[in-house]
């Protein structure tokens, strides 16, 4: 009786699972999407706190005074007169001012070839040796010539950096060297300086060696205050290259100082809600906006400021941005508040006994003073490849043997208790599906090669009157179509040959169709990619999952032309060319931007799309066109 009860229970459980598992994937997907909209609520975020007790933000008296403010105003006038000067003239003027103040200064010339166009620039930097240090650790205060939009001149940012440097030099409590860096050429200039500082050499970027050096850089603060305006709020940009983030303590220092010392309104990035002194959350709408903006920047992998290049060298960095507001009645701030915040921040960083390590490196910020830890953000993304239309294998009888000493010492065949398995135990041929995945990824490598040579292809196409970006897009799409067509034709020939050569067999002995094995591999591969990506670039993993989880789990071959056309349409929409067309961006500018990001800065979005995402799309295209046999 015990065995009979156990078999009955097992059969009921399996029947229930077989009924609900196909629906579970939709439930899990809905839970994951809903979770994203729950995260910005106040109940699922925590108030930020300082993990490193030695930092003591806002606990010191700052000495940046109105005499330094007047000095900064003079610097701003001088810098404004250099707006149309060459890089060499700008560098010479800055170096001259730094030497007047008693700094050790040096310049770095660099040249980088981007898409066949040589870009040159000159970086200027100076080092303030710590009176109480041995030169083994340093902090960086940087300011680019251009603001983050690449158009507006960063006049107040450079002037503030020079003025703050002069102010910091007057005091002897520094235990870490301070490096002043005025960079040229936006992120490229910082990249050239960092590579030279760490003795990294590459063939496509030529930079002169640095004549001055200090120790290991612990942290960096980048100033971006465009124009000569006063500012409404202090914007915080913290996303780095490939979605890297600085230690949360660095942001907490700046926000705490703005709250308790400088009384400056703060905001995340440059759009959205401005957080006043007693406002730590705002509302749900502003939190959702901040979350989506942060995830967008992270997914693209582009650094949101010059600070983003420091993060790849394990240097925590942040950009302070001046939000310009033309409203007359709003409270404004300028050099005095900027200098006080930067000085107090550097005083806190000067207290570091070791590298930032205690606070979070993986987080999302719905507001400057609230954070979402990664344990809340990593919701379950799962789907099943189980097909409810697959019939079960014929049931086998279960033979039960009574134990010695029981009332019935004989064998009992209980056919009525046979357990129907929710799947078929069938042979699976994996060689061809694996070859298909290898073939699609080989096509992805060819696509990446074509995109990398976009400039040469464009020049050749323009000789025939064809826009360069259109030729690259057409060529990559043609590679995708040819690869899919060849593999689908091979799959059809293979399926036809198998059906002719094999006699009729029971369902449990017939090999699984190639498309089913290919779909199993593709689903497992997609899940593996999303899982690995979630701990490298969580935001990119979320957007990939939103795009592909439901379509990939539903796609299958069909003889209904309308359903097949619908599946093909969805594949075209979520493919890279389809997403580009739907986004409405300038395709030529986007291709050149992504290519320069990949070749110069090392942004991995382009190789990820070409070598991982696009080949997976091709594999599912083959599944859609597979023969139904």
From TrEMBL:
One of its GO terms (cellular component) is GPI-anchor transamidase complex. InterPro entries: Gaa1 (IPR007246). The chain crosses the membrane at residues 430-451, 463-488, 523-550, 562-584, 604-628. The keyword Ligase does not apply. Keywords: Membrane, Transmembrane, Transmembrane helix. Pfam families: Gaa1. One of its GO terms (biological process) is attachment of GPI anchor to protein. The keyword Transcription regulation does not apply. This is 1530_t:CDS:1.
